[in-house]
Amino acid sequence: MSGHGGGHKGFGTRLIQAVALAVTFGLLYSATKLAPQLEGELGTVAGVGFLLLAGTLLSELLETIGLPHLSGYLLAGIIGGPDVLHLVDHHTVNALTPVNTLAIAMIALAGGAELRMSTIRGVAKSLSYAMVVQTVLVLAGMSATLFVLARFVPFLADLAAKPLLGVALLWGVVSITRSPSACMGILSQTRAKGPVATFALAFIMSSDIVVVVLTAVGMMVARPLIAGSGGFSFHDIEKLGHELLGSISFGTTLGLALGAYLRLIGQRGLLLVLLAVGFGLTDFLRYVTLDATLAFMVAGFVVQNLTAQGGKLLHSIEVTGAVVYVVFFANAGAHLNIPLLQKLWPIALTLCVTRGLITYAAARLSSHLADDTPAIRTWGWSSLVSQAGLALGIGLGIAKAFPTIGEGFSSMVIAAVAINEMIGPVLFKMALDRSGETRTSEAEVSRTSLLPPDPA
Amino acid sequence: MSGGIAVLLGLLVVAFVSSMLVGGRTIRGFGLPSGAEYLVLGVAVGPHGLGVLPRSMIQVFQPIFVCAASWLAFVVGLGYLIVGRRRVHFGRALAGIVLAAMVGSAVGAAVWFAAGVLDVLEGFPRLVLAVGTGFIGCETTRHTVRWVAERHGATGPLSDWLADMARASQLVPMFAIAVLAAVSPHAPLTEFAPPLRLAAGLGIGVIMGLVATVLLAREFRRDESWGILLGATLLASGVAMRLGLAAVATLFTMGLTLAVASRHRLELKFMVQSTEKPVLLPAVLAAGASVDFDAFPNLGLMVAVALVARLGIEVVRGFLLTAFLPAARKAGPRIGLGMASTGAISLALAFVLNVRLPGPATSAVLVIIAAGVLVGELVGPAELRRGLELAGETQLEDTNEVSPVSLRQSVLGRSSDFPEPPHSDAPGAP
User: Fold this and answer.
1) B218 touching A, CB under 8 A?
2) CB contact under 8 A, A456 and B63
3) With contacts defined as CB-CB under 8 Å, which chain A residues touch B227?
4) CA A329 to CA A337: how far, in whole Å?
5) Per-residue pLDDT tens for A140-149?
């Protein structure tokens, strides 16, 4: 991901970028017209290249109007994706699942490694209040909102009160998820430093544990309500305990192993190790029903706080950011179901606006209780709007667990996440700019960019 | 864990080992210059060996291997005009191309006639067999020259000539594969004439090379450069593959365009160079696993014809060198055999050809080039060392006691691809 460094980019540079973007679109468009019958693997290679190049260029161009790079990546994916220009087909979007897996592993590792104990101690009070207030108010508020709006939602209109309560509760659970990837993406671009950035990072990374717990509890409570029979099953609690403790244990071991590698061998070959970890271990963790995101986050946290190798790990992950984030978000853009969004946008937008308002109100309340600094008081909420892969994953998990409401529920999650995915990063970037946390880092980045390249 | 993930992890391990081997920035003492050991490993784990890597699994990963080979072609193109930090001498490069084409023509002609005599292939497959064997296998791996230079501290006009000619010879197989893809009757763009298809393949490379050049025209930043380079190379190779063109030739052209047009050519070259072996060796391993010894009857005879023709024409090359190059006179005509080392690039290209035009002809090309790599490994470095010794360009008697200063002179200052390490801990380093 290209940061802010590199100094001011003039009109000439922007013009060149615009022409290069036009060439990128034109080349792939011509190829798809000349050989329309060929898709599959051949289309995947060109599709990945297109997402990477068009995402990078569009993000640079949108930077001129203050939008974050993530918006550019998403937009490149939407425009080139299966529902608009069809330069990237459905096969490519699905074939890029391993890249998403890798990206999520990298993001979780980086997120954990960014969390220093000293940082967490510094924002512990704000974090505790915000976690409780945000979780309770958003969960309750969004459950109530869906319950009230149910008559306008096609798949809920005829549902009785009891199962509707169960669905509303599940919607509340989905609503408390945030996007670690969007947070890390924006912080990686802006390299912002300050209370808002620190609070966002600490809150979003640690909220993953809360989300895992509440998803399990929510599904346990909702099951008898939606099914209309049976009671609570403590088997779910057992599974939850296994998932949480197993993930933390595994993450700790992995973190210590990575720390030992970095100490003994250094950064040489680390990129390949991270690729192997991202691809191989995610698959393995899924197989043994552990939470990969949590495990990688713990691993990053352990490397940062229990070894002296955190800087090296972060540097290695940053190197991949220029590629991994772009492909991840551009693919997310291509994945957006535009026809579905066209169909569900009124209800999805209402739910998103309500969630945003509740998040803002909860942030003001928690800031008041924790006596936060003015920056967090004013802008602390801004990072909590984004939703992306985590919400989609939980939404799809719920849809699978409750097939009677599954299709409608997952469609609504996809539509709502699409809106939050587009609006959230813009709000967070704006907050970081307004709070002045991107300005100091710009100077730092532009200084580092003048260093000669490492020829290794 | 799925089989695909297991294979992917296996390839990552190979790439990791490769990156470790080149991590010290020199290849002295680590592995063979052609990477032949990975070829043998590939054959051993492939269907003709232990069967750990079955053909179906290789087919699943074929697009990745083609991308890997295309990336290598890009790396070669980017460094094509530069040896170490100096530009390749035009005359030497031209001689390298002409002599490589001569070698390719001779081997191709021998294979063409042998195919007729043995009555194995006819028509387009026979042409593919002859052109593929001759021209894709005619390069001299630049790693051999460097390997000998590093081991024996070789410096001098003959070393420079051979280094430049070896590098220049890589143009011939790239062009050959582009021509074969363009004349293939199975291409999606059959409504266009083959010259137009050839021009389209190379043109895409030029366009994307220029796009990358203007995008990287500002100050050099590694993170931005990686994104742009990867995006542009993947797009160019993907479009070329989609249109049935030779993606490797497209990316070679793209690299060459960047090398000519970009003011950051050196930084870019050094940046991507570290990826060469980690990408190349898994591709060689896959090529080894794809070798099919049952491509057609009498394949062994065909291999023998091609190898004898290659060694014979290399001696002719040696005569020509001694006749026209004063520095080569002391080395004698056998110096030509020192250029017989076919490298991993040829092998990767043969593998790509086999993927692009599957059939007995391209399977045979892969087998013949694999055999050429092994024979070249036996003959090339030894003859090269002998020739350079006779020419008085080797400086060290004991191969295990290489002086760091002379090593750096030979590696960094003259015929190496590697940059001067900024924080070198070698004695005598600044």
Assistant:
1) yes
2) no
3) 1-2, 52, 56, 322-323, 326
4) 14
5) 999 999 999 9
Distance CA B426, CA B430 (A): 9
pTM for this predicted structure: 0.79
Q: What is the ipTM of this complex?
A: 0.78
In chain B, DSSP finds a helix count (H) and a strand count (E) of 18, 2
Q: Answer whether A196's CB lies under 8 Å from A379's CB.
A: yes
Query: Across all residues in chain B, what is the average pLDDT?
Result: 80
Q: Which pair of structure tokens corresponds to residue B200?
A: 């389209």
Q: If contacts are CB pairs under 8 Å, which of residues 49-68 in chain A contact chain B? A: 49-57
**Structure token pair of residue A288:** 């043994």
**pLDDT above 80 for A6:** no
Q: Taking 80 as the threshold, does the pLDDT of residue A39 lie above it?
A: no
CB contact under 8 A, B270 and A42: no
Q: Does the pLDDT value for residue B406 go beyond 90? A: no
Q: Please give the radius of gyration of chain A, using alpha carbons only, rounded to the nearest integer.
A: 22
Distance in angstroms (rounded) separating the CA atoms of residues B225 and B264: 10
pLDDT digits (tens, 9 = 90+) for B320-361: 999 988 888 888 889 989 888 887 888 889 998 988 888 899
Flag whether pLDDT at A456 surpasses 50: no
- Per-residue pLDDT tens over the stretch A212-263: 888 888 888 888 888 776 666 677 778 888 888 999 999 999 999 999 998 8
Contacts within 8 Å (CB) and 24+ apart, A155-164: A155/A405, A155/A407, A155/A408, A155/A409, A155/A412, A156/A405, A156/A408, A159/A405, A162/A225, A162/A228, A163/A225, A163/A226, A163/A228, A163/A405
b/e sequence B41-70, b meaning 16+ C-beta within 10 Å: bbbebbbbbeeebeeebbeebbbbbbbbbb
CB A58 within 8 A of CB A73: yes
How far apart are alpha carbons A66 and A49 in whole angstroms?
25
Q: Which of residues 323-382 of A touch B (CB under 8 A)?
A: 323, 326
Q: Do B223 and A37 touch (CB under 8 A)?
A: no
Consecutive H or E run containing B83: strand B82-83
Classify residue A65 by burial, with Cβ atoms within 10 Å: 0-12, 13-18, 19+.
Answer: exposed
The continuous run of DSSP H or E covering B123 comes out as: helix B123-131
Asked whether B310 and B340 are in contact (CB, 8 A), the reply is: yes
* CA nearest neighbour of A138 among A366, A408, A432, A427: A366
Neighbours of B288 (CB within 10 A): 28
Q: How far apart (Å, rounded) are the C-alpha atoms in residues B225 and A443?
A: 20
Residue A278's SS3 state is: helix
Q: Among the residues of B243-328, which ranges form H helices? A: 247-261, 265-273, 276-290, 299-324
Q: Hey, is the C-beta of A286 within 8 angstroms of any chain B C-beta?
A: no
What whole-number distance in Å separates Cα of residue A20 and Cα of residue A23? 5
Q: Show the tokens assigned to A162.
A: 């009891």
Pick the residue from chain B with its C-alpha nearest to A38: B242
Separation between Cα atoms, residue B40 and residue A353, nearest integer Å = 62
Which residue carries 């090309």 as its tokens? B365
**DSSP letter string over B348-362?**
HHHHHHHHHS-SHHH
Tell the residue number behind the tokens 């209402």, with chain if given: A350
pLDDT band at A321 (very low <50, low <70, confident <90, very high): low
- Is residue B380 within 8 A of residue B144, CB to CB? The reply is yes
Q: A85 by DSSP, 3-state: which? A: coil
Q: What phi and psi, each to the nearest 5 degrees, are found at residue A201?
A: -60, -50
Residue pair B337/B318 in contact (Cβ under 8 Å)? The answer is yes
Query: pLDDT per residue over A67-97, tens digit each?
Result: 888 888 888 998 998 888 888 888 888 888 7
